[in-house]
Amino acid sequence: MSGSGTLVQVKRLLIIGIGAGDPDHLTFQGANAIAAADVFLLVDKGEAKDDLTRLRRDLIAAHGREPYRIVEARDPERDRTTPAYTAAVEDWRSRRAQIYASFIADDLADGQSGALLVWGDPGVYDSTLAVLDEIDAEFDYEVVPGISSISALTARHRVALTRVGRPVHITTGRRLAAEGPTADDVVVMLDAACSFTGAGEDHHIYWGAYLGTPDEILISGPVTEVADRIRAARAEARARKGWIMDTYLLRRAPSEDHRRTQNK
Ligand SMILES: C[S@@+](CC[C@H](N)C(=O)[O-])C[C@H]1O[C@@H](n2cnc3c(N)ncnc32)[C@H](O)[C@@H]1O
C-alpha cells in the first residue's frame, strides 16, 4: 500500500527456460508463463545465431496472449581475446545488467509482467539470474525451469545421467582442458576446443550438437575411436552454419574393483 492507501503493483519478471532447441521442449508451465507476459525482452546475439532468436519468436507467437509487445536489445560484445577472462565476463555482465534495468524501468508499467526466454534451463550455465541480482530496482521475479541440453543429450543417447549412487561433475571445456576429467562421469559444456581429446582410453563419450533441432548430430563410442569423427563433424557443421553448440558426457568404464563392490 502507498501512503495514500492505493495498492502499489510491483513489476514482475518471468525467467522462462525454453528448452535446448526443440519447440516441444517447452513445458506447460513455460507456455503458461509466456501467455502471462505483457512484454518480452529479446536479446539478440547477432546474425550467426539467428536460429536461437527464431525459436524464441516462434514460441512467443505460439503461446503469447495478445496484446503483448516485444522489445529487442543487442547483446553486448564480450572480449574473447583477452587473457583477463574474469574481468571480461564482469564487464559483459554489468552491461547486460544495464539492459535488464532499462527494460524494467522503461518498458514495464507497474503491475505488468516482462519475460526473458532463457535457452535450456536458467539454472545451468546461464548468467541471467546472477545478472538480475546486480540490478538495483524494485521488481519481483519467478523462474520457470526448462529442459537443459544435458537432459536432451542423455535422452537422445538413451543413457542415464547418473549411475547408481555415483556423482556427476558438470564443467566447462576450458576446465576440462586444464584439469582433465575430475570424476568418473563428467558433463562438459561450452567447449570450443574438443577438450575430450585428453581423456584416457577407458573413457566413453556421448556427444551431441544442435540437440533437439533438425541439425542434431549424435556420436558415441570410446573416445579413442570416435574423437576424430567428432572433430571432423564439428568442424564441418560449424563452417556450414556459422556457429555450433555441443555438449558431451565423458564416462569412465567401471574398474574391476568397483564392479566387484557393486555386485556384492
Ligand atoms: C551458455 S550455456 C547454456 C546452457 C543452457 N542453459 C542449458 O540448460 O543447456 C551454452 C552451452 O550449452 C550447451 N548447449 C545448449 N544448447 C545445446 C544444444 N541444443 N545442443 C548441444 N549443446 C547445447 C553447449 O555446451 C553450449 O556451449
Secondary structure: elements and pairs:
Elements: E1 12-17, H1 28-36, E2 39-44, H2 50-63, E3 69-74, H3 85-107, E4 113-118, H4 128-133, E5 140-144, H5 149-157, E6 169-172, H6 173-179, E7 185-189, E8 203-209, E9 217-222, H7 223-241, E10 246-252, H8 256-263
Parallel strand pairs: 1-4, 1-5, 2-3, 2-4, 6-7
Antiparallel strand pairs: 7-10, 8-9, 8-10
Bound molecules: S-adenosylmethionine (SAM).
The site of S-adenosylmethionine (SAM) has 20 residues, from strand 8 and strand 10.
Summarize the structure in words.
Its EC number is 2.1.1.152. Keywords: Cobalamin biosynthesis, Methyltransferase, S-adenosyl-L-methionine, Transferase. This is Precorrin-6A synthase (Deacetylating). This protein is α/β, with parallel strands linked by helices and 264 residues long. It has two domains: 136 residues, Cobalt-precorrin-4 Transmethylase, domain 1; 106 residues, Tetrapyrrole methylase, C-terminal domain (Methyltransferase, Cobalt-precorrin-4 Transmethylase, Domain 2, 2-Layer Sandwich). Helix content is 36%, strand content 22%. It contains eight helices and ten strands. Strands 3-2-4-1-5 form a five-stranded parallel β-sheet, with helices on both faces. A five-stranded mixed β-sheet has the order 6-7-10-8-9, sandwiched between helices. The N and C termini lie far apart (64 Å). The C terminus is likely disordered. The structure holds S-adenosylmethionine. S-adenosylmethionine (SAM) binds next to strand 8 and strand 10.
